[in-house]
Design goal:
Elements: H1 3-12, E1 20-23, E2 36-45, E3 52-60, E4 66-74, E5 82-91, E6 97-103, E7 110-116, E8 125-128, E9 137-143, H2 154-160, E10 167-170, H3 188-191, H4 206-216, H5 220-228, E11 230-233, E12 244-245, E13 248-249, H6 259-273, E14 289-293, E15 297-301, H7 328-335, H8 345-357, E16 362-366, E17 375-377, H9 389-404, H10 411-418, E18 420-422, H11 432-445, E19 449-453, E20 459-465, E21 471-477, H12 486-490, H13 494-507, E22 511-515, E23 520-527, E24 530-538, E25 548-557
Parallel strand pairs: 1-6, 2-11, 9-10, 10-11, 15-16, 16-19, 19-21
Antiparallel strand pairs: 2-3, 3-6, 4-5, 4-7, 7-8, 9-23, 12-13, 14-15, 17-18, 20-21, 20-22, 23-24, 24-25
Helix pairs in contact: 1-6, 2-5, 4-6, 9-13
Length: 558
């Protein structure tokens, strides 16, 4: 982080977020004196073998600026015998959010917890510590991209019902900073999912971000999942602004104030409202951290967005505004720049050092972006009308199928199939030098590696390969919770989506599976000799009665 950024961040974070601590076995006998309401449920997160973060929001019932809250932890839902309890304050400087870092717990153990004020008791939450060395399996629920006006958070609600999920990984875009009139809002009014009047604009200030988190936590599905499962989270761009990078964002303009002030506000609100233990302090951007699940899995939560990302390349910057000619040489030079990256030196060294030292069977990356080579035929980018893209892809895929069957295809078809371009320069495709560096390290590591990704709103299964085609790892991308996917961008129906999803793996060498039109979540179960990924797709997010309607699974051998 540069000096200016640090100063800006530190100064605007103000008093910062205080994470309270409590020792298991030290049971409090204190009586809360101030009436407070637990307005946004409970949550837990960042579990360790002997500790976990507990969260709630406790708003005093009168004008009192502070309330003393009792927290209690037990192994029994009856709360007959407390394992630990303590007292923690809630005040306006932290938006009345409360965090407790409960220590001294037992590994691999389920606990129940609650909070008490003088007038009310919170909902009872469930959580779980990380297992000890002797663990045979673990299951993650993987989520990304929840857009409030786009629909109900049905995938959260459905996942909360699954006892098999041990821990929830949220890979970013927990909120969206947009206003209530653009992206994803077409059906908001009919669903009753509009933003509140004083939070209907794009987010810029600490108050703005706090109110948006508060609104999100009114969703029953999100609250139920937080109540049932411990979360391990990392941010993406929309917790701050669309297409954020280390010193700006696509959606932050010069007339919208100081970007660093906006980022500092967003970071403070994030640390207040999410059940996370800030690894470098609650006003710092370094969010990367490691979680160890015995000798089975080491999970590395990474930041490819905020801390060190260089500004994304944009195809339009390489087109002549008069002739529309594409500057191929300039584009290749920019893409090949060895100094452009996502992780930054400190985070990359931290990752490679810890993966090298790891004794776990599986190495798992929890991060935002697709690493896989999503190289589409260049003809798609060169004049094909958006609504005709699926048909064009289908034509090319059929040509490829004929070619693979040994049939002759035309010179034009051969040319179109050979000319490829990265689909999304915002992903690792836009940073090929750093990708090759990371995948080269993974090859030398010689351990089974799975990378988890969000961000795209669609489901993906990729083989991760070096430039020479050597396979080194597996990538699993989850669909969005509610954010519209490719079906919205290209305006196609379900049948077209299914055809396109069968065509793309024909054209994209490293792509094994995709789903381009359904919302949902992913589970990944790890055992010592294999992992099983399952995508769970809901039938609708426009109705509270939505449910999981279909699944797709794949097995990855260690």
């Amino acid at each position: 982080m540069d000096r200016r950024s640090f100063i800006k961040l530190s100064s605007l974070a103000g008093v910062g977020l205080t994470v309270s601590t409590g020792l298991a076995g030290c049971v409090s006998t204190a009586k809360p004196q101030v009436a407070a309401k637990f307005t946004h449920g409970v949550a837990s997160g960042d579990p360790l073998q002997t500790a976990v973060i507990l969260w709630t929001r406790a708003v005093p019932s009168d004008d009192t600026n502070q309330a003393q809250i009792i927290w209690e932890v037990t192994e029994s839902e009856s709360f007959n015998t407390l394992v630990a309890s303590g007292e923690v304050s809630s005040n306006a400087t932290r938006d009345f959010t409360v965090k407790v870092d409960v220590t001294g717990l037992k590994p691999g153990t389920r606990y129940f917890y609650r909070f008490r004020s003088a007038s009310s008791v919170s909902a009872v939450g469930e959580t779980k510590t990380l297992p000890g060395d002797a663990v045979n399996e673990v299951t993650f629920g993987v989520f990304s991209c929840s857009n409030y006006p786009a629909g109900f958070f049905t995938p959260y609600a459905e996942a909360a019902k699954q006892d098999s999920i041990d821990y929830v990984l949220h890979l970013g875009d927990y909120i969206y900073e947009y206003d209530g009139k653009g992206y994803g809002t077409q059906h908001a009014e009919e669903m009753g999912r509009t933003f509140v009047a004083d939070n209907d604009t794009e987010l810029f200030t600490l108050t703005d971000y706090r109110k948006r988190y508060a609104l999100y936590r009114t969703d029953e599905g999100l609250r139920s999942l937080h109540q049932r499962k411990p979360f391990i989270v990392v941010w993406d761009d929309h917790e701050i602004s669309n297409d954020t990078y280390k010193d700006g964002a696509q959606n932050h303009q010069l007339d919208e104030g100081d970007f660093y002030a906006r980022r500092a506000a967003a970071v403070q609100a994030y640390y207040e409202w999410l059940p996370i233990r800030p690894p470098f302090g609650d006003s710092r951007l370094e969010i990367y951290r490691q979680f160890t699940f015995g000798k089975l899995v080491d999970l590395y939560m990474l930041d490819t967005r905020v801390l060190a990302r260089d500004k994304q390349l944009v195809y339009s910057d390489f087109r002549d505004p008069q002739t529309n000619a594409f500057d191929q040489q300039g584009f290749v030079a920019a893409m090949s720049n060895p100094s452009r990256g996502l992780l930054g030196t400190a985070q990359r060294e931290w990752l490679t050092n810890n993966m090298t030292k790891s004794e776990a069977k599986w190495q798992v990356l929890g991060q935002q972006l697709l690493i896989g080579r999503m190289h589409f035929p260049a003809s798609i980018f060169n004049g094909v009308p958006r609504e005709q893209v699926p048909a064009h892809v289908h034509t090319l895929a059929n040509a490829k199928r004929r070619q693979q069957a040994g049939e002759d295809i035309s010179a034009e078809e051969t040319h179109m199939l050979s000319m490829l371009m990265p689909y999304n320069l915002d992903a690792w495709d836009g940073y090929p030098v750093e990708r090759e560096r990371l995948l080269g390290f993974i090859r030398q590591l010689d351990k089974p590696v799975i990378s988890l990704a969000g961000d795209t709103h669609n489901a993906w299964h990729n083989t991760l390969t070096l430039n020479d085609g050597t396979a080194v790892a597996t990538e699993l991308g989850t669909s969005s919770v509610s954010s519209p996917g490719m079906e919205n961008y290209l305006k196609f129906d379900d049948d077209t989506a299914k055809t396109l999803a069968s065509d793309l793996p024909v054209l994209i060498t490293d792509l094994n599976y995709c789903n381009l039109h359904q919302r949902g979540f992913m589970t990944v179960n790890f055992a010592h000799d294999h992992a099983v990924a399952t995508w769970h797709f809901v039938d609708t997010v426009r109705d509270k009665a939505g449910k999981v309607a279909s699944t797709y699974s794949t097995k990855i051998s260690a």
